[in-house]
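Consortium newsletter contribution from the modelling node. Members have asked for a concrete example of what our holo predictions look like. Here is one, prepared for the 6-O-phosphono-beta-D-fructofuranose complex that several groups have been discussing at recent meetings.
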Amino acid sequence: MNAKRKINRIGVLTSGGDAPGMNAAIRAVVRTAIYNEVEVVGILRGYSGLLNKQFMGMQSHSVSKIISQGGTILKSSRCPEFKNKNVRAIAMENMREAGIDALVVIGGDGSFRGANLLCKEFGFPVVGIPGTIDNDIYGTDFTIGFDTAINTAVSAVDKLRDTADSHNIIFFVEVMGRDAGFIALNTAIASGAEATLLPEVHTDIDKLCSFMERDRRKNKTSGIIIVAEGEEEGGAMEVAAKVKTKLPGYEIRVTTLGHIQRGGAPSCNDRVLASLLGYEAVNALLKGRTNVMVGQMQNQVVYTPFEEACTRHNEINKTWCEVSRILSL
Ligand code: F6P
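And here is the predicted structure:
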């Protein structure tokens, strides 16, 4: 649906897991809108704020100095109630009452599912911006937050490597990514991990043990094994326990990096991506585009219908698994 209609006031919200760079995207949305003489209303705590009328007017100074801050000044939440059509109708009514006539949603595929329904059921103009550390959104080479998250994970693994070497330990390091292995694979390659377990590749514990024994024969006394949280054996804790029963002589430790991957100052790449996509999202709305996510592929701006952005997924490059394995020999 791309019917052009006059937009005087845009709402902006962040939804789902926070990601570094969301603030840079908010800043870009606010300033691009103001440049085009359109007012902006910030909606707090994602879709929950739409239901509770948690609205705040935003001016250019509202977003001063936030480009370098992690998290989201608008706060975020997951809002399962939004799956209910009657609840979405309340959100629509609240937006009408507040004079909001278009919306920018910054979030992941769950957030775009809600956005898709607002467009389809109520003909309301919505454009999405991919913000999640997982990098699993179809229609963009990178999601906002991914670059910062992998840099955080790599610097944590570099530190663990020191202790692994000093004490002859094998570390099983669990990284986030839900059911996608982008964070794990990139972290593994960049930290020179000895092995990587991904949701996209079958985990074979016996094979992993024989890799570890092969390493030992080559006089490697320590190692790093990156485990994606969505890996089929149940995560780092479970995998480490299974390996320990087969290789009881090994000194094994488990570290779960957890939410530190979601925090911290956004990287330069994330700030730039967020700024460009925020700018493009507002311009898309002003040109009458709706029901799409704005992404970037091979340096080009790409619009992907929400329907596709929330049903398809980015795929890891399986060749990279081979690269990671060969380079850790
Ligand atoms: O989608 C981002 C993400 O951090 C995933 O990597 C992870 O599986 C999930 O969110 C964790 O969610 P929560 O913070 O609600 O536990």
